[in-house]
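Sorry to interrupt, but I need a hand with the structure work. It will help me judge whether the discrete encoding reads sensibly. Write everything out right here, beneath this request:
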Amino acid sequence: MTPTVMAAAGLAAAAPPQIISLPPLFDALAITVGALAGALYATRKGFDFLGIVAIAFLSGLGGGVIRDVVLQFGTPAFLANPWFLIYAASGALIGFFFAKKAQTWGFAYNALDVATMGVWVLLGCQKSLQLGLPAVSVVFVGVLASVGGGLLMNLLCGEVPTSFQPGHWHAFAAMLASITYVTLARAGAPPLTAEAATLATAAVLKWSAVRFDIRTPAPIDLSEVVRERLARRRKPVDPSIPSG
């Protein structure tokens, strides 16, 4: 409903929660790290320069693009802010020219990946809340923004997205971080508190999954268990056998 229709119907639109803009450094790290991950992935696949750049840009910017398209939030942020393209290009070039060296930065890269995952969650959740979406939609967009880059990267490479396969928590951690932000924001918590708690939740869950090898569960088929239990219940009782 438009604001005019809502006013005519006597409905008051809920005021969006206050939001503190994240420092530019957060955007720079999140996009550069995502682009670097995509570039290294494409390098291992044997792609040429254009292929590496394309995968890097999708990995670094894809989450924000999907978020803006889904929300119909106007021009995608990376087109309105040329610095986003520079950050993505930086990650792509590092992956192209220093692939072997970058592969040895495992600890630093994992630390940055853990630290920046919550940034994408916040960017998705905050824009959704500004548009007045319900809580479940805000959580969905927060998760989508976090996994979107990897999702597009895998699809372009003709692979099943890693977010859909059993592995270390990522989408699950993003979901819990999104729930944390929505809960605190809707409860009226100070913006800085809600954002810090979201970043901490995402980082702790992601780090714990990597550190302790916590993985999402594979499918469990309970068909036989259910069938056996139903068969036992339907089995006739022999009256000659005393009960108890």
In short: The chain has eleven helices and no strands. The chain has one domain: 19-225.
